[in-house]
């Protein structure tokens, strides 16, 4: 999920993300969005509940992972 806080909401959005346990990973990034987050959900219905907690303070763009051609791995050693 990409998250773009509304003006003046950056810290409140960050706090909300920290409190929601389904957010298992979140990076603060440059560019139009402020956060790129990974969530683990049991069902798509969970997504609606989580979005309702975040979208009152931020715009979101959600994608669903279909597969993982390259799993997380260590960078090559020099």
Mean pLDDT across all residues, rounded?
94
Radius of gyration: 14 Å
| Termini separation | 33 Å
Task: Please name the CATH topology.
Answer: Alpha-Beta Plaits
Pfam families: AsnC_trans_reg (PF01037)
Protein name: Transcription regulator AsnC
Organism: Caballeronia telluris
InterPro entries: Dimeric_a/b-barrel (IPR011008), Tscrpt_reg_AsnC/Lrp_C (IPR019887)
Layout: helices, strands, pairs:
Elements: E1 2-5, H1 10-19, E2 23-28, E3 35-39, H2 44-54, E4 58-61
Antiparallel strand pairs: 1-3, 1-4, 2-3
Can you describe what's shown?
InterPro entries: Dimeric_a/b-barrel (IPR011008), Tscrpt_reg_AsnC/Lrp_C (IPR019887). This protein has a single domain (2-61), classed as Lrp/AsnC effector binding domain/regulation of amino acid metabolism (RAM) domain (Alpha-Beta Plaits, 2-Layer Sandwich), CATH 3.30.70. The protein has two helices and four strands; from the N terminus they run E-H-E-E-H-E. The protein has helices at residues 10-19, 44-54; strands at 2-5, 23-28, 35-39, 58-61. A four-stranded antiparallel β-sheet has the order 2-3-1-4, covered by helices on one side. Strand 2 (23-28) and strand 3 (35-39) form a beta hairpin.
